[in-house]
Amino acid sequence: MSKERLTITIDKKVLDLVDGTIDGINVRNRSHAIERLLELSLLQNVSQKAIILSGGDTVLSGGKRIPKSMVTAGGMPLLEYTIKMLSRNGTNDIVILAGEKSEEISNYFGDGSSFGVRITYVVENKRRGTEGALLFARGFVGPGPFFVINGDNYYDFNIADVYKQHIATKALVTIALTTVERTVGFGVTRLDGSKILDFVEKPATEGSKLVSTGFYVFSKAALDLISKSDKPVMLEESLFPRLASMGKLYGYVVSGKWVPFDSSRPEATIKEVEALTGRI
Known about the structure:
Elements: H1 12-19, H2 30-42, E1 49-54, E2 58-61, E3 64-67, E4 72-73, E5 76-77, H3 78-88, E6 93-98, H4 102-109, E7 118-123, H5 129-136, E8 146-150, E9 154-157, H6 159-169, E10 173-179, E11 187-192, E12 195-201, E13 210-218, H7 239-246, E14 249-253, E15 256-259, H8 266-277
Parallel strand pairs: 1-6, 1-8, 6-7, 10-14
Antiparallel strand pairs: 2-3, 4-5, 8-13, 9-15, 10-13, 11-12, 11-13
């Protein structure tokens, strides 16, 4: 991409605000900050389409097995928090990829109209992994970028910033990242600016503290690179490492709230969500 040098005059107070966006990770310097702010102000704010992955393992709750995304915290299923967050941000066309016990989801949310969204359900008749599930649902997304979200986590951050960077960088996939103290059990990344140099799923040893939140922006072209294997294949183990090697995988470090679902300690997940939301 060609660039041109220019000289501009900016009010000192405005310039201080510009400098305040420089974090050394997503924004490297003053020139980059000005360019990024212009891009973000001129580009579309957010995708209207989202795919929520809710077809994984079920858990025992209240004496019956339910999808992990339907575990209740503070009187609401985890999936409801995500749908309401998307609706607040202007994303209202949602595809839920469901599997075992899918009726627990569809009976609760219906067509989505009570939650300010439109919901389409795509139910897998066999386990395809997250890559196969996305291929199964590719006919439900349009030509533009769309969100892909793990349905069993709690999210509350500015999704528009992730989307805008995705457009500006021409990434095939952008991952919303955050920092954790212990990275074992997560998808771990190393960044050069906003480009992800490598993606390692559940490393055995500690390294970079930047991990995937399970919230992604996809360009439709990324689906063309998904494995056609008959066996279940996970995005984190196949597509993401491949995109990183191609220089087409990007990350955006979010500030906000995120709680990953811990299958080994679901009660701890519930308590953390309740503490964050004040719904105890």
